[in-house]
Amino acid sequence: MDDRSGSYEHYVVDDRTDDNHLESNGAAKSPLDVGSMDSLSAQHPTHILNGFNCPNAFTQKREHATEQEENGRLAKLSGAVRTILECIGEDTSREGLLRTPERYAKALLFFAKGYEEDLGGIVNGAIFHENHDELVIVKDIEIFSLCEHHLVPFTGKIHIGYIPNGRVIGLSKLVRIAEMFSRRLQVQERLTKQVATALSEILQPQGVAIVVEATHLCMRMRGVEKTTTITTTSSMLGSMRSNAKAREEFFNLLKLT
Ligand SMILES: [Zn+2]
């Protein structure tokens, strides 16, 4: 324990109840020096930048776009939506559709807003030394994602569990990490794995367990048209993979079997 340990509990408790309060306090609230992408990367040199945050040049372009570039993107996307409407057999001059291209373009950018975020920005100092070594679970986090094969939504819940190894993260950050990855084009399996791997690399915990339960509109509205099917995926890392008891405790607490 170092001389900052006295404030850990306070910080953690605050973060679990009011994330904004924490963020508004700036540097004073950062028990660990992991507030920036640079320091995060320095601690975990193999991770984040190459893997999750900047999948390609287009992602970086979007995250760092100027206002002018954003306007250009919106105009280009609106034009593409107009083309889609024409291709499905619609009259784009019809009154009800006049503003639809721009409206849908904005909606799509919102659906995929996870490309504008990165892990360093989200974590932003909210990692704390804490000797807690019992399972931490945040369950029933709602997710809205887009299937990358059909560009239609899949929605559901993600359950996140981890066993700390000297470091914990503000609970609201778990929600935001899930949000960042789900607000990108995804397949459910990869989304599950990405959240697990990100947590593993950020916290280096004893174990991580992620479960995602979702329904896919591409299954409900087309193809097999199974309207009640729920797809469940999981990713277990570290002791959550190797220790059956830890895994059992996680599933018991989720009330899943
Ligand atoms: Zn699909």
From TrEMBL:
Residues 13-35 are annotated as: Disordered. Its EC number is 3.5.4.16. Keywords: Allosteric enzyme, Folate biosynthesis, GTP-binding, Hydrolase, Nucleotide-binding. Gene3D superfamilies: 1.10.286.10, 3.30.1130.10. GO terms for cellular component: cytoplasm. Residues 79-254 form the GTP cyclohydrolase I domain. PROSITE patterns: GTP_CYCLOHYDROL_1_1 (PS00859), GTP_CYCLOHYDROL_1_2 (PS00860). GO terms for biological process: folic acid biosynthetic process; tetrahydrobiopterin biosynthetic process; tetrahydrofolate biosynthetic process. Signal peptide: none annotated. Pathway: Cofactor biosynthesis; 7,8-dihydroneopterin triphosphate biosynthesis; 7,8-dihydroneopterin triphosphate from GTP: step 1/1. GO terms for molecular function: GTP binding; GTP cyclohydrolase I activity; zinc ion binding. Residues 13-22 have a biased composition (Basic and acidic residues). SUPFAM superfamilies: Tetrahydrobiopterin biosynthesis enzymes-like (SSF55620). NCBIfam families: folE (TIGR00063), PRK09347.1-2 (NF006825), PRK09347.1-3 (NF006826). GTP cyclohydrolase 1 is the first enzyme in the biosynthetic pathway leading to folic acid. Belongs to the GTP cyclohydrolase I family. This is GTP cyclohydrolase 1. It comes from Periconia macrospinosa.
